[in-house]
Amino acid sequence: MTTVLDKAISFVRQAAEEDRSGNYEEALKLYQTAIEHFLHAIRYEAKGNEAVKKSIREKCLGYIDRAEEIKKFLEKKNSSKSSSGKNDNKKKANKAEGSDGDDSDGDDPEKKKFKNQLSESIVVENPNVKWTDVAGLHDAKESLKEAVILPIKFPHLFTGKRKPWRGILLYGPPGTGKSYLAKAVATEANNSTFLSVSSSNLVSKWLGESEKLVKTLFQMARDQKPSIVFIDEVDSLCGSRSDNESESSRRVKTEFLVQMQGVGSDNDNVLVLGATNIPWGLDSAIRRRFERRIYIPLPEEAARLSMFQIHLGDTKTSLNDNDMKRLAQMTEGYSGADIGIIVRDALMEPVRKVQRATHFKRVRGPSLDDPNVIVNDLLTPCSPGDPNAIEMSWTEVDGTKLLEPIVTMGDMMRAKDSTRPTVNHDDLAQFEKFTADFGMEG
Length: 442
What we know:
Strand content: 5-15%
Structural class: alpha/beta
Shape: globular
CATH class of the largest domain: Alpha Beta
CATH topology of the largest domain: Rossmann fold
Number of domains: 3
Largest sheet: 7 strands, mixed
Radius of gyration: 28 Å
Strand order of the largest sheet: 1-3-4-5-2-6-10
Mean pLDDT: 80
Number of strands: 10
CATH superfamily of the largest domain: P-loop containing nucleotide triphosphate hydrolases
Helix content: 40-55%
């Protein structure tokens, strides 16, 4: 069976061959594809094996450096008015490999270290979350399409003064789907590099390293654009500045401001997507860099209905359409995460019924081996008063003979009554005030 690592090695061999032949554009594409596969292998196939991870990283960083050298050479070549033959191009590329000047870090081990730290934040595998999987939030999805999908599909629409959004902040109560929206962006923008990071990826105990990590992150995004930088809990990295904060924290915010502004750099086709539960805690200068600030509120009734349906999936239940609508009406003030907890709790009720049962009865039902075959000797929990009840505990039931009870409306109601919403009116008032001052409804 061919692994992702095998594919990465194959792509590298092809890239090296094209590189030697002077076909630098093709070589660059192959190097980039190989690097993506190497990073995927580090993240998933080599998980838990530090020796293999280290070996892959060391090789991958060398390919990253060579890809950057070829990219710079091609950019210089395209901007030059004169053109030369393939052999001359190869000489220039080889020269660039040895002397990049002050603008390149070359074989700087510090640069390699920072890239190594951030490399695992690159999402190569699709999260497989579609726009249709996100209930409600129409305006938020449209803004993200404007910023991510349309500029890639129709670049001619975004010329002159019409520019795509470069910074979008998703804010709202916890559990409303901000990170889930980011996963949808990663899935739908399949031509873009998606870099998902948190403050822990960008904070170091060593003096000066944090701001260098921030700079490296944005450089990686520029090198692999079109790209999306998703920063979860951005408030922990870019909170309001004060006299009591450390000098290190202040420098990180300054570097973040510089990189988002794109001073001296080309930030076209680089979107910064931030998510936070406390937008009022953001530094005002950082807040300004996020051109669109979108409130992700608690779900409305229609969205809650969709969430119940999504979470229940194909689980066997006795619930009808009216039951589902009733649940949606009764859960006003609940977040999407709260509804997920309600359904998970209700789905455990059949298991609890089996555990608590003192009597079982024989019933007809689908075989566990083949659901299309109906058998007569299955056992399911019942009350002691049932005329067909057999006194026994679940430990005496053959594992292949158990017919699980279906989820009922009573199960859902018990789960709902035992689950309290995680957001109160005071929290919502703060979000509504921030939206009135700085944001827009999602």
